[in-house]
Write a structure and sequence with these properties.
By secondary structure, the protein is of the alpha/beta class. Helix content is 35%, strand content 23%. Helix 1 links the parallel strand 3 and strand 4.
């Protein structure tokens, strides 16, 4: 099975939306998963998870959120709508079962995936890793030490101000998640996350639907969970149960 991705450009709300699509080898339409990266990250950083999910029988779509990577625009208050653009595209592909699509996101990507799920009932489930709240994203935008770390790591982002700041000030992810009910959400968070306290996921789980799940890891930090083989397997099992 080849792990080479199909490279695509979609028309998103901020212009060009750069996508890597990993098609499952199946004779019938397959369930699909949208992968949503975090602040300053990119679609290439989700290739390992995309390839793993592809081997489990899923079509996987990873994209550069607006203001990141090869996509146009700047990060703004409508960034979560890029998930909807990816969803609409997947539903046009003959290789995809349009009734069985979910999303996996980390940090800002989890935030965006949850917002998209509240607006798009076609998203059957979300796996949210180390979800960043609005306060955490504001802290990341205005903490000099955070940007020094980003510079050293090679991460990049173009931010549209004051629009994104205004969005973060008026938005409340804890009021968004209850709107996803009764669709289930799988929250995953490491107790030693250095950027987002695991209490954020605890609070989100408390307002999610009764079929949702919370898994607190003893270690892994902010970046580790999505690369952990045990976590990746748990994500696949959850998606197989909720999308197949």
């Amino acid at each position: 099975m080849s792990d080479i991705a199909e490279k695509l450009i979609l028309r998103g709300g901020a212009g060009r939306l750069a996508v890597h699509l990993y098609l499952a080898e199946a004779s019938t339409p397959s369930p699909a998963v949208i992968l949503c990266h975090g602040l300053t990250s990119c679609k290439e950083n989700y290739a390992d998870l995309a390839k793993f999910l592809r081997r489990q029988g899923f079509v996987a779509l990873a994209f550069d959120c607006r203001g990141h990577g090869e996509s146009d625009g700047g990060l703004d208050g409508q960034a979560w709508q890029d998930v909807g653009t990816a969803l609409a595209y997947l539903r046009t592909r003959s290789e995809v079962d349009p009734e069985h699509i979910g999303a996996v996101g980390a940090s800002m990507g989890a935030h965006n995936a949850l917002c998209a799920a509240a607006e798009h009932p076609e998203l059957r489930t979300v796996v949210a890793l180390c979800t960043a709240s609005e306060i955490i994203l504001q802290y990341g935008l205005f903490d000099p030490e955070h940007w020094h770390e980003i510079q050293h790591s090679g991460g990049q982002v173009r931010v549209t101000l004051p629009d994104y700041l205004a969005y973060l000030e008026r938005h409340n992810i804890y009021q968004v998640v209850p709107r996803i009910r009764p669709r289930p959400v799988f929250f995953i968070h490491a107790r030693d996350d250095e950027f987002v306290p695991f209490a954020v996921s605890e609070r989100l789980h408390a307002v999610a639907g009764s079929g949702s799940r919370l898994w607190l890891l003893d270690s892994g930090g902010h970046q580790g969970p999505r690369h952990d083989p045990q976590v990746m397997q748990a994500i696949a099992v959850w998606l197989q149960d909720k999308l197949k």
